[in-house]
Amino acid sequence: MSDADKNLEIGERYMQAVSSCDVDAVREIYAPDARIWHNFDQALQSVEDNIKTLEWIHGKLSDLEYDIVRREPIPGGFYQQHVLRGKLATGADFAMPACAIVKIENGRIASLDEYLDTAHTQPLSKAG
User: 3.30.230.10, 3.10.50.40, 1.10.3080.10, 3.10.450.50: which CATH number matches 3-126?
Assistant: First the structure.
């Protein structure tokens, strides 16, 4: 298996873990000192803070799933375009498109830069 194939397989395992809120698997896939960055706040997030965000999202949405639009290898990792989908407590559909650039080191995610439009997050913030 090529490095590119291995990196894409890590991306698949990561998205499965995130979709099911398997925080132990997410921790295992991230390097301990991984950094997660979002375009909307320009701040670095730790693995533990990222897991808190993941748990918060799962608390706001039911039927959560990620529709992968594309995942392509890049040197040292992959980029991915996806849409986070789910149902709000009101029963309304939720959809948030995003793009991530992921760097892999030693078989684990070392960095993840995610780009999204925060206008799409408004329904999550308003959800009870």
Answer: 3.10.450.50
